Amino acid sequence: MNDLKLEDIAKLAGVSRSTVSRVVNASPNVGAATRKRVEKIIQNTGYHPNAAARSLASQRTNMIGLVIPRTTSAFFTDPYFPHLTQGVAFACNNHHMTLSLFLVGNQEDENEITPRLLRRGMLDGILLQSGNSDDMLFRRLISSQVPLLVLGRPFEEKSVNYIDVDNISAAKSAVSHLLKLGYQRIGMITGAIRSTTSVDRQTGFEQAMAEAGREIDPSLIVEGDFSENSGYVAMKKLLAFTPDAIFAQSDVMAIGAMRAVQEAGFEIPKDIAFVGFDDLPIASTLPIKLTTVHQPITHFGIKAVDLLIDMIEKGTKPAKRMILDTELIIRDTCGGKSVSRPTDQGAEMEGSALNALIQTGGAIHH
Amino acid sequence: MNDLKLEDIAKLAGVSRSTVSRVVNASPNVGAATRKRVEKIIQNTGYHPNAAARSLASQRTNMIGLVIPRTTSAFFTDPYFPHLTQGVAFACNNHHMTLSLFLVGNQEDENEITPRLLRRGMLDGILLQSGNSDDMLFRRLISSQVPLLVLGRPFEEKSVNYIDVDNISAAKSAVSHLLKLGYQRIGMITGAIRSTTSVDRQTGFEQAMAEAGREIDPSLIVEGDFSENSGYVAMKKLLAFTPDAIFAQSDVMAIGAMRAVQEAGFEIPKDIAFVGFDDLPIASTLPIKLTTVHQPITHFGIKAVDLLIDMIEKGTKPAKRMILDTELIIRDTCGGKSVSRPTDQGAEMEGSALNALIQTGGAIHH
DNA sequence: AATTTCTTTGGGAGCGCTCTCAAAAGTTAT
DNA sequence: ATAACTTTTGAGAGCGCTCCCAAAGAAATT
Known about the structure:
The structure is a homodimer of 366-residue chains. Chain A is an alpha/beta fold and 366 residues long.
């Protein structure tokens, strides 16, 4: 529509560039009449300040980056990330920030993306999904200048800012619940063992067992990778060792595992009980509703942005930490009686286990 | 690590700012020795050019925006969008572009986001998910300067650049297949009827019926909104009218509908056959594998970025159009024997081979 | 009426790059 | 050796804004 600059508006309004700048930036030190006049002209001309010029002069871009490293990029097969992204995007809007998304697909991508991340005048801050310990990208970002907040506890947490949920006590409460219900042979399907998430949930499992004075049977712990299929495969292995309850480190794996259990002709929770982790929307619409640890994924994303922006504005020293709480949601797969939260709607819906990966809810698109 | 600027590097290398700039931008007009020397210093100092300054001077930001309007923002409940985003992100990396994601949650967001989108010096181009016809955001973007590519045919297509799949012939082939198999009472579950996607798929349905000389029974067409639950609800209505086959306009709705059918005690495909649309990965891992129209979602995102960048570089006149092909993937829910099109080489693939194709998220064949 | 204080405005100096143009240096041809 | 190119380098003028500082004007104080 136009290529006007501040100067042009100034001329049109008969004021100086500075004054127009003040109006645009809502500075209080402008006379009411002048402000009105300038605003009107801006309105009429459809003037929009140039973002690059503004960033250069102010040393602020109002952009933050969300980086999903290569080691985590089974990304879009897991509903976790869309939910997270949504939270992050939402919070960015609230803060008038623009969100840039960096999906690192492979090593090549990483080489290509890293310099863009490090470039000054690009991002005010970075949200980095925690990945493996040997993540090169991780190291380079840590040692850079940009305010950086890691999503999920990193392996080397020394002086790095991160936000996480309390995976240990969350897992502990899940397993303790199974113990309380009297299950004797409790198995676990882990996530990708190179993630702290998985390590911490395993620690919680061990703590719960120890507190109950139970021995851990190593054959009842099988490694998964957070995917539905890995849950299915893991469960097939586990069946040979006759568990009576399973703690799956993610809902998606729980769903895969339950599929294996049902195919084998067992009943849930009568023969084998289940507790998952995440509390994805689907958990409450399964035919046998999944008992699981609720973690506030979208909220997690929002909190992360809030914290990052705080860091940007107030500096990152000392290292920032934020740990969010989780909540065990008891439904049907763990046996015992169902104590569902009143907020759980959709609990009426029945569904085949194979709806598993699909979430319900109004989708309008394509 | 440092706050060096071009000037500093120049001083260190004993050359001028211009020369360093040439090295950084890989200009050919630099002496080999000079280049080497400068490169080494850049390497050692860890210098990275300032993005804002560069954008301001060059009038190029190397950023593109992906905008999901409000009318479409049940976004992250539908696997379609993560797949699309992945494709877009992938292509951006290839083009050394940064992707900014704009999720418009509500009217407030829209007001907040619009100016950011319109601001010059921010985005080189915009990818806009097609929404409703009365979308204010749509209008404002159309009438702005930024190169704009709409994902999905918009209602007013006059002089707007868009990319889409051939929904009409895709739907037609799906329905023709059911007709060929001899089904007599073919029903349809539509998507959100205010989207062109849904309208086009309905047109395809009608064309197939017309070509076969069939009357359309309006009671066999029920409106959904692309969500799993809407498929379930729609199917409950449809059951009263005894259809023997259903064309669902999305896989997710097909899954919901099949859930309803099974609950009612019918068998698939014996009592009621199904064809879906999308070919999400889950379609091939269902207990009864879903016959569906494959649309290359991720690939669609890639093509979109390619086209947009082409527009940015070469201008947008005349209006650009790109229509991608789809492919009917015959599996188990449609009954009958696999009738493959002679030209389809994918039709040879069964089960796991097909899965492989789908899991790669790719089917890169156009 | 003169002085002080506060508010409103304008001017100028960058922010760190790109890009054109001309000068300098190096090549080849005459 | 000189002329005529070609390649390599440097200088300067922006890109469009912010932000500090000082000037001007208005209001309040003496």
